[in-house]
Design brief:
Blueprint: H1 3-7, E1 30-34, E2 41-46, H2 50-67, H3 72-101, H4 105-125, E3 133-134, E4 141-149, E5 152-156, H5 164-175, E6 179-183, H6 189-206, E7 213-216, H7 220-227, E8 234-238, H8 241-253, E9 257-261, E10 266-270, H9 276-288, E11 298-304, H10 308-320, H11 340-355, E12 359-362, E13 381-384, E14 400-406, H12 409-417, E15 421-422, E16 424-428, H13 432-439, E17 448-451, E18 463-464, E19 467-468, E20 475-476, E21 485-493
Parallel strand pairs: 5-6, 5-8, 6-7, 8-9, 10-11, 10-16, 11-14, 13-14, 16-17
Antiparallel strand pairs: 1-2, 3-4, 4-21, 12-13, 15-19, 18-20
Bound molecules: 2-aminohexanedioic acid (UN1).
Length: about 500
């Protein structure tokens, strides 16, 4: 037994359904969590059955009635303590993320840091859930708006950020007075159990009602129950565009609210005026970090023709230095893909790219031999392509980087925008005119547009999400909290007359 599993009290868990301190038994199927690092079975959870799901929703609804009455700063104090508990568990939780999901330990720890950061952000917010006040057109009237808790929030998260994405949603939802039901990816279910165990202790110390933090586990079916459930006014879903379209449709069908954060096809433009050495780090980390399994991973480089040869040589040299292997070993840059299905997708994309005319500058392939027994380790690769190839329009969750040439900035921006997805984008340039054009209304069409940093590694303080097939939702910082509350406009008449708006006369 690995010590971090013990530290997180994951030794003998097979529960996958909880309303907080209570763990419910289930007749659902067993979900095995295999590590892509070494193929070992880390643990099991039981999928939530319908009965368990109903019990969870009932508890979350009941808890909401009490929780929404707690003053927001008091809810914030509870979230502050969660942040403290996460600081204490950072090392163990970071290792679990790395071991269950396969990202490098540095990135596993970075993910827990994102959780801590969003806790801090949410604590501040708990005293700032501001509404505007307006000037009424009628004398003796006061008009303002206030934000009320929304209800039970359903959170569906993906394997690639198995803990942080939940925290972006739940920490904000909690200070906003909502209760949460979280369905983690069936590919990383132990992460949700570990988080629930950490939160449960903090809640118990503070007398938080049972049902404020709930977890359910399972596959598509559980996600469908949530999406179709009118008792969940908001579904926040992170994952593939295919999944998001189904969730969005189901939630819209019942006039619910959805917050969708889906696929990306993120590009970096390398201008003739770029600092090439600095750009290299952003490009390589963006493309191979998390083995290309971030929704913000860099998938395309659009390189000015005058620096194309120089920069592609630099890239090839950098790729030759990458060490691939056990992500818990800090000497390695790249860990495994999540599972062998992901390896198949990677191989299929390489094959499709070749058939469509792509030429590989750095070849891919599946690694074999000692240390690679899980069959999930692949070589990050680089293909020279043209932007119209169908594979270049697609998000493949793997370390495949497509590179292409451009001549004018207008052309580069058009190439960057001409994909179905619209999450993250960047330009590397020291030329102010180019940078400003890229950020202008005629520039990048993405939710995130950066200058002289890469596409991945967004900070929690900004609103996170994107346009087009990325789903349009914004999570995390800025005013994303408004997703988790309902707005109410209030007008109060403190006179003895009842003037009507718009000057309407209505005399009895
Ligand atoms: C995701 O991949 O779903 O910007 C989230 C980043 C991280 C979040 C990625 N802060 O890469």
């Amino acid at each position: 037994m690995k010590d971090f599993l013990q530290a997180l009290r994951l030794e003998a868990t097979n529960a996958g359904t909880s309303t907080g301190a209570q763990w419910l038994s289930s007749t659902g199927s067993q979900l095995n969590s295999y590590s892509p690092v070494d193929a070992s079975l880390i643990g099991q959870v039981t999928a939530t059955d319908k009965e368990g799901y109903e019990a969870v929703v009932a508890k979350a609804q009941e808890a909401f009635v009490e929780w929404r009455q707690w003053p927001a700063p008091r809810r914030g104090e509870v979230v502050r303590q969660i942040g403290e508990a996460l600081r204490q568990h950072k090392d163990a939780l970071g290792k679990l993320v790395s071991y269950e999901m396969g990202k490098s330990l540095q990135e596993g720890l970075g993910e827990v840091q994102e959780m801590i950061d969003i806790c801090d952000f949410a604590v501040g917010l708990s005293r700032q859930l501001y509404g505007l006040s307006m000037h009424s057109e009628r004398p003796g009237h006061r008009m303002y708006e206030q934000w009320h808790p929304l209800g039970v929030v359903g959170i569906i998260s993906a394997f690639n950020f198995p803990v942080a994405v939940w925290s972006w949603n739940s920490m904000l939802a909690w200070v906003c007075g909502d209760t949460c039901i979280w369905k983690a990816s069936e590919k990383a279910p132990l992460c949700s159990v570990a988080c629930q165990l950490i939160v449960q202790d903090v809640f118990a110390k503070n007398g938080v009602p049972e049902g404020v933090s709930c977890i359910v586990n399972g596959g598509r079916e559980v996600g469908e129950w949530m999406s179709n459930d009118h008792r969940l006014p908001l579904i926040s879903a992170t994952g593939s565009t295919r999944m998001g379209k189904e969730v969005g449709k189901a939630v819209a069908g019942r006039m619910g609210r959805s917050l969708l954060e889906l696929g990306g096809n993120n590009a970096i433009i390398i201008s003739k005026d770029a600092d090439l050495d600095m750009s290299l780090i952003g490009c390589v980390f963006g493309a191979v970090g998390t083995a290309g399994q971030r929704c913000t991973s860099t998938r395309r480089l659009i390189i000015h023709q005058s620096v194309y040869d120089t920069f592609s040589k630099k890239l090839a040299n950098a790729y030759a230095q990458l060490s691939i292997g056990d992500p818990l070993d800090s000497n390695n840059h790249v860990g495994p893909l999540i599972d062998t299905d992901a390896v198949k997708n990677y191989l299929n994309a390489i094959e499709a790219c070749k058939q469509q005319g792509g030429k590989f500058l750095v070849e891919g392939g599946v690694l074999q031999g000692t240390g690679y027994e899980s069959g999930c380790y692949v070589k990050p690769c680089i293909a020279e392509v043209t932007p119209d190839m169908p594979i270049v329009q697609t998000e493949t969750f793997a370390p495949i980087l497509y590179i292409m040439k451009y001549d004018t900035l207008d052309e580069a921006i058009a190439m960057q925008n001409n994909v179905p997805q619209g999450l993250s984008s960047a330009i590397m340039t020291l030329n102010l005119r180019e940078a400003e054009q890229f950020l202008s209304a005629a520039g990048s069409d993405c939710g995130i547009a950066n200058v002289n940093i890469g596409t991945s590694g967004a900070e929690i303080g900004g609103a996170f999400g994107g346009e087009k097939e990325t789903g349009g939702g914004r999570e995390s910082g800025s005013d994303a909290w408004k997703n988790y509350m309902r707005r109410q406009t209030n007008t109060i008449n403190y006179t003895n007359k009842l003037p009507l708006a718009q000057g309407i006369q209505f005399n009895l």
